Amino acid sequence: AGDSRRPSRSPFRDPPPGPPGRFALSVLATTFALSVLMALAILVNTFAMAVTLHGTPQSRSPLVNWFAIEAGIPFTMAPPRPSNHPFDQVPFLTDDGGVEVFESGACLLYLADKYASSSAEERAAWTPWVVWANSELDGLCFGAVPGDHRVRGESMSKPEVRSVGRLDQILGGREWLVGDGFSVADAAVASYLNYVPIFHRGADLSKTPNTVQYMLRCAERPAFGEAFGAQHQALVVAKCNEWLSAGGGAGASGGGLLGALGLK
After folding, report:
1. With a threshold of 0.70, does the pTM exceed it?
2. Strands 92-95 and 75-78: what pairing?
3. Residue 106 CB burial class (10 angstroms; 0-12, 13-18, ≥19)
């Protein structure tokens, strides 16, 4: 006689009694929930509290703090020393995998590349601005020379200086430096610009209203105040408003996009 035992049933081929489709929907819902949980786990792992920044409020580390806050990158602050910075300075950033980065611009680019970049083309749009801020804007805002970071003076009050006037023209045609929103390029450039009213109380940027309006837009962002401090933020905002009032607002200068085209 043959084996009369019935084969075991698979619940996927023989659903329990109930309205048609209910079991299938239940399986789909469970699968979807598991997928969401897996995605969240990957996201949490990616943004784990791995970034550590050695710095102080009096250094240039707030530049890095600002972008990290804007981009939603968790980080922890550490004392300026000890660290593995080759020149024993700050800021100095570490991350998973033994990553170590020094120089504020390099820290910004690392964070943007790892946490905010989607393509080489995107990186190519913001990288020049970060490099320009460190290489040229630094000197325009502080009068620094290579190897000597002492504040010597500023040139941002002089629109006749080629880069100062050109920056005002560029900012007359756009709200942000790259694309339609705030990026790491703005964190680099606006941080330097907004140090001018802090270190040079007698500076007068009223002749470059587009630059001042850009400085004000950036300084009014909540993350700017969180990174640099409320007092720093308030002073920059007050000074920018003072310069705009003295210059008659955006239309006071012959700069800007219309001025560059000879239409103003």
Report:
1. yes
2. unpaired
3. middle
244-254 pLDDT, tens per residue?
A: 999 876 443 33
pLDDT digits (tens, 9 = 90+) for 144-166: 655 666 677 899 999 999 999 99
The long-range contacts involving 223-227, CB below 8 angstroms and separated by at least 24 positions, are 223/66, 223/69, 223/70, 224/66, 224/190, 224/194, 226/65, 226/66, 226/69, 227/62, 227/63, 227/65, 227/66, 227/69
CB count in 10 Å sphere of residue 128:
12
φ/ψ bin of 12: left (φ > 0), alpha (ψ from -120 to 50), beta (otherwise): alpha
- Give dist(CA 20, CA 25) in Å, integer: 10
β-sheet with 75-78: strand ranges across:
75-78, 51-54, 92-95, 99-102
Tell me the residue type at 76.
Answer: T
